[in-house]
Amino acid sequence: MKYHLITLGCQMNKSDSERVRTVLDDMGFLWTDDEKDADVLGILACSVRQKAIDRVYSRIHRWNQWKDDHNLLTFVTGCVLPEDRIKFLKLFDFVFTMNELPNFPDMVKQYGVVSPHAIGTGDVDDTPKGAVATEPPAALASGSTVISLDALVKKPDTVEREVMADLWKVDATPDSDFAAFVPIQNGCDKFCTFCAVPYTRGREVSRKSEQILAEVERLIKRGYRSITLLGQNVNSYGLDRPDTEMSFAQLLSNIGQMARLAEKPFWVYYTSPHPRDMTRDVIEAMAEYPCIGRQVHLPLQSGDDRVLLRMNRQHSMKAYRQSVEIIRDLIPDATLFTDIIVGFTGETEAQFANTLKAIDEFRFNMIFVAKYSPRPGAASSRWKDDVPHDIKSERLQRVNDLAIKYSTEWNQRMVGQVYPVLITGVDRKKENMAGLTEGRVNVRIPGVHRDLIGTCVDVKVAEAVSFCVMGERVGVPVTA
Questions:
Q1: For the chain, how are helix, strand and coil distributed in percent, rounded to 5?
Q2: Domain range 158-412, CATH class
Q3: What is the pLDDT of residues 331-365, one digit of tens each?
Q4: 67-78 tens-digit pLDDT
């Protein structure tokens, strides 16, 4: 029996999907690249963007048609708004949140399906390795299974922390053998008015540091070259349990000390931090330990203080500027990435002009820009979406134009210099090898040499283009 997963949305969903794969593998199901061959089909959904939700509906419509020809189980998990969850109950066989993943084998058994391992051994205990068995959930009359949730906006209690701890005990099954994600925190306490994350993932819960450090240590020993710490607000790590847990800066320092004993070098990244919690000690830790990649993704969203206030971003342009000044002072070679929303409710042309001024000031290496769209549950969904679509598109293009300008300027300064580059694969044209510098600048090397994937090689930059540099390999791999 085979399974196939569709993962939508952010890196956290990708990390979650690696734990879903572990559970399904431990139940005896085998991965297939072809969803038509699967007996179990799942989606890691993302309610943050309507396009992602539209893709969920498109997929499940197709899958339910396939049920006429063969037995098929379907499920959806990930970031799902309560409103979407109710609709999905009528379409999927199973609807559950990620913190309920350890219960999935029980859900399947209650549904009346025996997993491959149970068929082979006569044993019906399909609890995945590292998971904690719990009472099976009740099946709904609609045929879907879901566990009822407490109010998502309350502070996490001991039970919720234990439930998240159970999820994090499930080992990940990484798609890559050189780049890995390590979740350190889940949920969000910021309640930005445009964002649905507090309603899909709940309040902030920090993972125990001993779990995090143990997982990082395992990855280091297995030779992973790139490790990314994940959370909705990674730099607020530990703030929900200040009396019992270390701070984010201390966590980075502990990993930095582990790197000094490692046999092979590696780079550690984190995403995404919040400007309100970007304290000097975090940047000092980055500057002190070479293993912490010289790249900071610091979401700005808008360059206008009034818009930031309506967004409930809880930081001002002055505070953001101070953080960038510390980064430039302590880590002058660090690249700076950001997120921008254009056309937020009530955004005037003058306010948008302040965003352009901010881009001119900070000269970001990369900007992830999106047109504002209301999300159910978020506070701004109750406000009039009063910026016309064509104006949003025009503003998005103006941001993209500046993003290209400053990315190209930085990349041009790289020409003629040699950089260590982690080779990540073959590019879309199937003509070049693709890789990343320590600052996560995209690199292309002519020719296809698949044996280089997962290695770090020296590359001399010969040409700079938009969001990418071209170069030639120098010498032999830094490490094989």
A1: 40, 20, 40
A2: alpha beta
A3: 999 999 999 999 999 999 999 999 999 999 999 99
A4: 988 889 999 999
